[in-house]
Automatic annotation (TrEMBL):
Protein name: ATP-dependent 6-phosphofructokinase
Main location: cytoplasm
Function: Catalyzes the phosphorylation of D-fructose 6-phosphate to fructose 1,6-bisphosphate by ATP, the first committing step of glycolysis.
Protein's pathway: Carbohydrate degradation; glycolysis; D-glyceraldehyde 3-phosphate and glycerone phosphate from D-glucose: step 3/4
GO cellular component, one term: 6-phosphofructokinase complex
Active site residues according to the UniProt entry: D127
UniProt-annotated binding residues for ADP: R21, A22, V23, V24, R25, R154, G185, A186, E187, K211, K213, M214, H215
Length: 319
């Protein structure tokens, strides 16, 4: 292994820069040349590769986003585009590729490995929707961003004795809503895995008011969506002023938490070690606080198991 390249793909996530830093510095420590690829698979196809030195990753561990930038790439979805990408890597003498991203990014790495490129993936997505690993990079930071927003909304909701509906990201995975709902003291958590009963939701809000609650907080995952319309319906039925807030892409930004910085650093180091060991088509994860590497085909095939116990806890604590 003489040259390793690294790219970030798909949606950005806090901790990506920390992972890039770990890949670069670990590679250089092992005497391996490192190439950065700008703008993900799009930049790879266009030959946007450059050599990275230690100073290139100085002062980035605390920064959100990705210094390598990221972009979607329709051309890479074609066989011709992937062959072109593999050819570019070979022209630059790249022996191994580290891909930092989510499910779609991993599938790209999987296909490149079948074209003779040694690949390893690091899970960088705020959604926490990759079942083979307990945590993905950016998830913890996003939870703290949501909690900060919840704390601020609670102040104004209490002042006006309102219902606050907060819609968070996560696509079809409800982890952001569920975790932040528990940590933020929400009265209800609405997620794709469980759905919800509108009448029961209104009943919960009205019972809370009878108990003397000054406000109600409802967390909604974007996989459910429709928060603005839901707010109108809740206000119409309960008679309580209701406002919806869609947090949107603010959840992707910000300085990564200590947890995400540590996780990114550990995963970045292990990714380089895996390539040095001669493995390919692997993905890095964490289970029981141990960094793991799994076959990418097996990892992508792992069925997602919803944490029923965690949802039960959210219901117990919201009463």
């Amino acid at each position: 292994m003489k040259t390793i390249a690294v790219l970030t793909s798909g949606g950005d996530a806090p901790g990506m820069n920390a992972a890039i830093r770990a890949v670069v510095r670990t590679s250089l420590d092992k005497g391996i040349k490192v190439m950065g690829i700008k703008r993900g698979y799009s930049g790879l196809i266009n030959g946007e590769l450059f050599e990275m030195k230690r100073q290139d990753v100085s002062d980035i561990i605390q920064r959100g986003g990705t210094v390598l930038r990221t972009a979607r790439c329709a051309e890479f979805l074609t066989e011709e585009g992937r062959k072109k990408a593999a050819g570019v890597l070979k022209v630059f003498g790249v022996d191994g590729l580290v891909v930092i991203g989510g499910n779609g990014s991993f599938m790209g790495a999987q296909k490149l490995s079948k074209l003779g490129i040694s690949t390893v993936g690091i899970p960088g997505t705020i959604d926490n929707d990759l079942p083979y690993t307990e945590y993905t990079l950016g998830f913890d930071t996003t939870l703290n961003t949501v909690l900060d927003a919840i704390n601020k909304l609670r102040d104004t909701s209490t002042s006006h004795e309102r219902v606050s509906i907060v819609e968070v990201m996560g696509r079809d995975c409800g982890d952001i809503a569920l975790y932040s709902g528990i940590a933020g003291g929400a009265e209800s958590v609405i997620i794709p895995e469980k759905g919800y009963d509108f009448d029961e939701l209104c009943k919960t809000i009205l019972e809370g008011k009878l108990k003397g609650k000054m406000h109600s907080l409802i967390l909604v995952a974007e996989g459910i969506g429709g928060s603005m319309e839901l707010a109108k319906q809740v206000e119409s039925v309960t008679g309580i002023e209701t406002r919806a807030t869609i947090l949107g892409h603010i959840q992707r930004g910000g300085s990564p938490s200590a947890f995400d910085r540590m996780l990114a650093s550990r995963m970045g180091v292990r990714a380089v070690e895996v390539l040095i060991e001669g493995k390919t088509s692997r993905v890095i994860g964490i289970r029981e606080n141990k960094i793991t590497d799994d076959d990418i085909d097996e990892a992508l095939a792992v069925p997602r198991k919803f944490d029923e116990r965690l949802y039960e806890i959210s219901e117990i604590l919201s009463r």
